[in-house]
Amino acid sequence: MANSMGRADERPAEPEQKEKGAAVRFPPPLVYLLSILLGVGLQKMMPLPFPIDRGPLAFAVAALPFVLGVYFLAASLGWFLRTGQNPEPWKPSPELIAEGIYRWTRNPMYLGMAWIQLSVGIVLGNAWVILGIPLSMIGVFIIAIRPEETYLESKFGEDYRRYKSSVNRWLGRRSS
Asked: CA-to-CA distance for 144 and 89, rounded, in angstroms?
């Protein structure tokens, strides 16, 4: 309430502390994009031979990893939408997703991006892009997966530890 001097008698309320998500500071899709660009640059400087000529055969071979990549991305984004979550890892996760594609991989988006990087490498006839996939995955592990796992374990505790012990990071379920 204001006093006769027009000032409030009470101190303003403290701003609410907003929950934060994982301590991810760099968008993981950019790791894959940078790896592809690096592969394109390396191919110009130090060309590596590629077993498939660019053209219809390359597109046919690249179709499977591309479709897999899109499937992994779409399936994971679908679960984020169903549960009202934001896929940006630095945003809070209101609930643990352990259904659908998440029963088979803890990181379907990052795995999908790796499949798409493989597809791009095949279409471009660029072995460097393909050789960059493990580096992309290591980079994403360092900048995103480790902080995400730390966040999820601190937020969901035993539920996340149980999930982590039953589903592999990249692909497959573990036997109990």
From this structure: 8
* Residue 129: domain span: 55-84+96-176
132 located within any domain: yes
**How do the pLDDT tens digits run along the chain, 176 residues long?**
445 455 555 555 544 557 788 999 999 999 999 999 999 999 999 999 999 988 899 999 999 999 999 999 999 999 999 999 999 999 999 999 999 999 999 999 999 999 999 999 999 999 999 999 999 999 999 999 999 999 999 999 999 999 999 999 998 887 75
Give residues with Cβ within 8 angstroms of 96, minimum separation 6: 152, 156, 159, 160, 163
Q: Identify whether 41 is part of a domain.
A: no
Q: Which amino acid is at 22?
A: A
How many domains does the structure of the chain reveal? 1
In order of 73, 85, 148, 151, 153, the CA distances from 114 in angstroms are 11, 23, 18, 23, 25
Domain-located, residue 110: yes
